[in-house]
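Dear Dr. H.,

I hope your travels went smoothly. While you were away I took the liberty of generating a structure for the chain from your last submission, since the lab meeting agenda had it listed for discussion. I wanted you to have the full record in hand beforehand rather than looking at slides cold. The sequence, exactly as received, is reproduced here:
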Amino acid sequence: MWDILGEINNIGKNTFLRTGIIETIINALLVLLSAFVISKILRKLILKHYKGNPKMILKIKNFIVYAFAIYGILNQFTAFSEIMRILLASTGVVTLAVSLAAQDAVGNFVNGLMIIFFKPFKIGDLIRIESENISGTVEDIALRHTVVKTFENTRVIIPNSTMNSTVLENISLTNEQKANFLELDISYESDVDRAMSIISEEAAKHPNFLDIRTPNEIENGVPAVVVRITGFLDNSVHLRATLYSKNNSEGFAMLCDLRYTIKKRFDEENIEFPYPHRTIILKNETKQEETSA
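The corresponding predicted structure, in token form, is as follows:
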């Protein structure tokens, strides 16, 4: 029996296989088993200890494990060893060819790794890219690109090389409060003191408004909402109030609600928003009046 197994094992040995066929099968199974065990161990470690984007790290882990398994199996063939020897001998030429053919792809891959490890933003962050006029929530970070979900519910796919080189604002990287600016213009004839009081009253009543005053400031009578005159325009007085909320979405809703309630209060108390007036002179009627006179 062992003689028969030995004869079977010698099939392909030193021709297209580096070892016998039975040894090759056993080696391949050991490589697959090792890859499976390593993959499971790495997955548990990543999910337990990595607090960033585990989805992307798992993809990189899978790529490395699969590459290890494929190399381990192909390495059993003598032709593969010869091919690897030739490739290593011509590494400079191959590297140059690959770098020219896949420069953008490699650049996006490297920038994707930098985004994953340095974490300028993560999935779920609200970002704004001024140069591309894009604002939205990061939905996915892949090796080649980043997917941003815009406020219009569309998806923008941006290469990682762009994401890593451009200047972007990560709105989610804030403290516990988000500052929101409520800016209004009133006419010069309106009561500016009354307008500022109405803004303060309405803002302080809103459920999304955060009072960030310290106990000492409250004791000393510092107002919860400070309204300031920030400029005199051609036809109006410009007012600004800084209001704090928990996050960007609550701040947006608060500003929208306040514009509505403040507009109603201004109408009730005769405080006007300036708007352009146009005077129209009808020349024909003017000439007729001069002739009749």
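Two observations you may find useful: The first strand starts at residue 126 and ends at 129. Residues 178-268 form a domain with the Alpha-Beta Plaits fold (CATH 3.30.70.100).

With kind regards,
E. W.
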